[in-house]
Amino acid sequence: MINSNQGWTSMTLRLQTGFDEKGAPQYKDKGYSRVLPSAAQADVYAVGEALAGLTSYDLHHIQLTNREDLTRI
Q1: What span, in angstroms and rounded, lies between the C-alpha atoms of 57 and 2?
Q2: Which residue has the higher pLDDT, 69 or 43?
Q3: CA distances (Å), origin 21, targets 45, 56, 57, 68
Q4: How confident is the model over 46-73, as a mean pLDDT?
Q5: Max Cα-Cα span within the chain
Q6: What pairing do the DSSP bridges indicate for beta strands 25-35 and 58-72?
Q7: Contact of 26 with 18, CB cutoff 8 Å
Q8: What is the rounded distance in angstroms from the CA atom of residue 34 to the CA atom of residue 60?
Q9: What angle do CA 30, 35, 36 make, to 5 degrees?
Q10: Cα 11 from Cα 36, distance rounded (Å)
Q11: Among the listed residues 13, 20, 24, 21, the one whose alpha carbon sits nearest the alpha carbon of residue 57
Q12: Over 90: is that where the pLDDT of 7 sits?
C-alpha cells in the first residue's frame, strides 16, 4: 500500500526578457521553492507580481507546481 502526503509547492515566474531576431518573445524562468500548499492562489499571485515588479522584465505568467510525497506502508 502507498501513502501520499502533500509536500511543498513551488512557484515559477515566467518573465519576458525581450525578443529574438525574428521578433519572437524570449523568456526567462525564476523559481521559488517552499511555497506553503495552504497559501491562497490570489496571495501567491500577488507575491509573484510583487517579485516580478523588482525586475526590469514583464511578467508573462506564474506557474505553481505541487509536490506529493509517496511512501510504501
Answers
A1: 43
A2: 43
A3: 31, 20, 18, 41
A4: 94
A5: 55
A6: unpaired
A7: yes
A8: 22
A9: 170
A10: 10
A11: 13
A12: no
- 43-67: b (≥16 Cβ within 10 Å) or e: ebeebbeebbeeeebebbebeeeee
Question: Cell numbers 507580481 correspond to what residue?
Answer: 49
Closest CA to 33 of 12, 51, 60: 12
Angle, alpha carbons 35-48-13 (nearest 5°): 90
pLDDT tens track for 9-54:
999 999 999 999 999 999 999 999 999 988 999 999 999 999 999 9
Q: What's the rounded Cα separation, in Å, for the pair 61 and 43?
A: 15
Q: What is the pLDDT of residue 55?
A: 97
